[in-house]
Amino acid sequence: ARKIIIDTDPGQDDAVAILLALASPEEIEVLGITAVAGNVPLPLTQKNSRIVCELADRPDVKVFAGCDAPMKRKLHTAEHVHGKTGLNGPVLPDPTMPLQDQHAVDFIIETLRTEPEGTVTLCPLGPLTNIATAFEKAPDIVSRVQEIVLMGGAYFEVGNITPAAEFNIYVDPEAADIVFKSGIPLVVMPLDVTHKVLATRPRIEAIRALDTKVGHAVAEMTDFFERFDVEKYGSLGGPLHDPCVTAYLIRPEIFEGRHINVEIETSSELTLGMTVADWWRVTDRAPNALFIGSADDEAFFDLLTERLGRF
Ligand code: BDR
Ligand code: CA
Question: Would the pTM count as exceeding 0.90?
Answer without folding.
Answer: yes
